[in-house]
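Changelog note: in this version the structure field was regenerated for every chain. One regenerated record is shown below for reference.
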Amino acid sequence: MVRIGISVEGPTEERFVKMVLGQYLATKGIYMIPISMGGDVSVDRAKSELKKLANSFDFVTTLYDFYGFKKRLQGETKEELEQRLMDSVHEGVKLKLIPYVQMYEFEGLLFSCPEAMERGLNESGIQQWCQDVLAEFNGNPETINNSVETAPSKRLLKHTKYRKTTHGPNIAAEIGIPKMREMCIGFHEWLCKIESFAQ
């Protein structure tokens, strides 16, 4: 059994880990406990949080949105941001840490399955709308863009009755982790690293 503390951005990600991701990983002997940052994520805040988590768990990881990350450097990529998180922590924490930043935010994962999106929101026409958004980004949910107007959650809030903390985890449960892994390579690669802890 492996216990992993995961620092998450807010209540939506916390529910996602408890309802969906945690249950999926538990079948592999990995027990993930989410701790919410309550938003306003920055490297300095994460550094402090990860230090606390490292004292209580076998390993630690993160689930933060790239879009909402505060004090990003000019032109900083996801990989550079993850490396900056790694570089910020104490050597003892580094040995336990897998930093992960979701592109561009959690809601991008929900575009993995237009059918499940329509069922989860219980609104007609959403499947086609979701397919159109995906087509605009060559079928890759993780590239639905980082902007005040067009980030995944902004699109959902504008075009549907989406409520983050309720609909987000429920739609994710409807989709299932395997489908998200198939559609979202960054998400898949993160889970591969986590699963290696159980081997």
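Spot check on this record: The chain is about 55% helix and 15% strand. The chain has two domains: 2-105+181-198, 107-178.
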